[in-house]
Design a protein that fits this description.
This protein is an alpha/beta fold and 455 residues long. The chain has helices spanning 66-84, 104-117, 137-146, 160-166, 172-185, 203-216, 233-239, 248-264, 283-289, 324-334, 346-357, 366-372, 378-382, 387-393, 408-411, 414-429, and strands at residues 37-44, 88-89, 91-96, 125-130, 150-156, 190-196, 220-225, 268-271, 274-276, 294-297, 302-306, 315-320, 338-343, 364-365, 397-400, 403-406. The chain folds into two domains: 18-288, TIM Barrel, CATH 3.20.20.70; 357-429, Arc Repressor Mutant, subunit A, CATH 1.10.10. The chain is built from 16 helices and 16 strands. GO terms for molecular function: 4 iron, 4 sulfur cluster binding; coproporphyrinogen oxidase activity; metal ion binding.
C-alpha cells in the first residue's frame, strides 16, 4: 500500500520523536473515569507473493501452520486486552499481509477471544482486508458467518498492465468480480483501495482508471499515492532508470483530479486518503486519527494503549515481534510477543494528536486536545501570532469554535504545513528552565538564576 500526501513522517525535523500516540491520564476530582475502549488490530502476516512496491512486514512461505498461528493470535488478543483492561471494543480490523488467506475459522476464533475478553457490541465494525484472488463469493460468505461485516478490497488498479507493474497476482477482471461479490454480501460496507502515481502512469490513464473505479465501487474509497520504498523491486527499477518517476506536479494534479471526481460523485473526503458517502466512514480508520486506543495483535502489529493492568497511566507505543516464528515462541512463552514499548511524553503525544488529527476534515477538536493538554489550549498555542496565524490568514487553516483544521486547499498541502505547526507547538510547550543552584560555598552570581524561556 502507498502513502497519501500528508502521511506520518512528513513533518521533517520537527516531527521529532512523534512515533505513536500516548495519553496521560491526570486525575480529575469528582469526574468518573471513562470506560476504557479500544480497537484490536489482528495481523495475518502471510502473502502468496510479494508485490513489487511493498515493504510491509509480510512473509511468503511454502506452508503455514494455521492452527498454531490461530492459537497464538487468540492468546495474544486475550493477554493484551487483559493488560489494557479495555472494557468495550469499538471496532476490529484484520490486516496484514493478506488476512483473506486465513480461514474463516481463524477469524471466528479471534473474534470469539475478543468478545470473551471485552464487550464487543452487536454491530461493531469488523473489517477484513481482502485481495481479489482470495475473495471469492463462498470464501467471503464464510468470513461473514465468522463475524466480519465490512470488507476492504485491495484492487489498487483496474488496468492489467498496471497490475503487472505492481506485481499483483490478480487481474482487472478478478478485481471487478471480487468487488461485486463483496458488495453482494456486504452492501454499503465494501471499501476499495486505489493507487496513483505509478511509474509511467499518465494523467489520462489515471482519470480513466478512476472513472472505472467509480463505476464499480460501493460507498468507501481509500486513495493512496504510491511510495517508492527503498529495497523494493519497483524502487530499484526507477532508481536504475528502467522506469520513469512521476513529477511532483503530476502527482499533485492526480490527487486533485481524484478529489474533485470523488466529491462530484457524492463522496465526503473525511481524511487525506479516505472518502465516504452515505455516512459510511470507517470507525476503525477514525480511531487512529482521533487518538483512540488500538491494540496490535500479531507479528509486526503496532498498538497504542494504557497498560492499566500493570498500573500504567500513560499510553504506550508498542510493536510486536516481526518474524512470525519468533513471535509465536514469545506468545507461547509469556502470552504476548511485544518487542518494543515506549512511554510517550506529553509533548510527543500532542505532536501526533496534531499531525494525525489534521489529516481529517474535522481536524483537532477542542475537546480532544483538552484530553491531552488540559492546561494549554489550542487557542493559546495556535491563536497567538506565529506560523499558525499566518497560515490561517493565507487560507490554509481554520481555528474556530470547532477546533483547528485544514481548509479544503490546505488538506492537500498538509505535508508542507506540518513542520511549521509542530515547531510552533514545541516552542509554546517548552517548560521554563529550572533555576540554577549556586555551588556550595559560592555566592549566587547575577541574581543567582538561570535564564528562563517563556512557555
Amino acid at each position: 500500500m502507498g502513502h497519501a500526501p500528508g502521511g506520518p513522517g512528513a513533518g521533517g525535523d520537527c516531527w521529532g520523536a512523534c512515533v505513536g500516540l500516548g495519553l496521560c491520564l491526570p486525575p480529575q476530582s469528582g469526574v468518573p473515569p471513562p470506560v476504557p475502549t479500544g480497537a484490536p488490530c489482528p495481523q495475518w502476516p502471510y502473502c502468496r507473493k510479494r508485490c513489487s512496491y511493498c515493504n510491509f512486514n509480510k512473509y511468503v512461505v511454502p506452508a503455514v501452520d494455521e492452527a498454531a498461528v490461530r492459537a497464538c493470535l487468540v492468546r495474544e488478543a486475550r493477554t493484551l486486552l487483559r493488560l489494557s483492561q479495555v472494557q468495550s471494543v469499538t471496532s476490529v480490523f484484520f490486516g496484514g499481509g493478506t488476512p483473506s488467506l486465513a480461514s474463516p475459522r481463524t477469524i471466528a476464533a479471534v473474534l470469539e477471544a475478543v468478545a470473551g475478553a471485552a464487550h464487543l457490541p452487536a454491530g461493531a465494525e469488523v473489517t477484513l482486508e481482502a485481495n481479489p484472488r482470495s475473495a471469492g463469493t463462498a470464501r467471503l460468505a464464510g468470513f461473514k458467518a465468522a463475524g466480519v461485516n465490512r470488507l476492504s478490497v485491495g484492487i489498487q488498479s483496474l488496468d492489467d498492465a498496471e497490475l503487472r507493474l505492481l506485481g499483483r497476482e490478480h487481474t482487472a477482471a478478478e478485481a471487478r468480480g471480487a468487488v461485486e461479490a463483496a458488495r453482494g454480501l456486504f452492501p454499503g460496507r465494501t471499501s476499495i483501495d486505489l493507487l496513483f502515481g505509478l511509474p509511467g502512469q499518465s494523467r489520462g490513464a489515471w482519470a480513466r482508471g478512476l472513472e472505472a473505479a467509480l463505476g464499480l465501487c460501493d460507498h468507501h474509497v481509500s486513495l493512496y499515492q504510491l511510495t517508492l520504498e527503498r529495497g523494493t523491486a519497483l524502487a530499484a527499477q526507477v532508481s536504475g532508470g528502467a522506469l520513469p518517476a512521476p513529477s511532483q506536479d503530476l502527482l499533485a494534479d492526480m490527487y486533485q483530479t481524484a478529489r474533485a471526481a470523488l466529491v462530484a460523485a457524492g463522496f465526503r473526503q473525511y481524511e487525506v486518503s479516505n472518502f465516504a458517502r452515505k455516512g459510511t466512514l470507517s470507525t476503525h480508520n477514525l480511531s487512529y486519527w482521533r487518538a483512540e486506543q488500538y491494540i496490535g495483535v500479531g507479528p509486526g502489529a503496532h498498538g497504542r494503549f494504557v497498560l492499566r493492568g500493570e498500573g500504567g497511566r500513560s499510553r504506550e507505543a508498542r510493536v510486536q515481534t516481526l518474524e512470525p516464528d519468533a513471535w509465536m515462541r514469545e506468545v507461547q512463552s509469556r502470552g504476548h510477543g511485544t518487542r518494543r514499548r515506549v512511554v510517550l511524553s506529553p509533548l510527543e503525544q500532542l505532536e501526533e494528536v496534531l499531525a494525525l488529527g489534521l489529516r481529517t476534515d474535522e481536524g483537532v477538536t477542542h475537546e480532544r486536545w483538552g484530553r491531552f493538554s488540559p492546561h494549554l489550549s489550542l487557542e493559546a498555542i495556535f491563536g497567538a501570532p506565529g506560523e499558525a496565524k499566518a497560515l490561517q490568514q493565507q487560507g490554509w487553516l481554520v481555528l474556530d469554535g470547532g477546533g483547528l483544521r485544514c481548509t479544503w486547499r490546505g488538506l492537500a498541502l498538509l505535508d508542507s504545513l506540518l513542520p511549521a505547526l509542530l515547531c510552533q507547538l514545541q516552542r509554546r510547550w517548552a517548560p521554563p528552565a529550572a533555576p540554577a543552584l549556586p555551588a556550595q560555598g559560592a555566592a549566587p552570581a547575577g541574581g543567582g538564576g538561570a535564564p528562563r524561556r517563556s512557555p
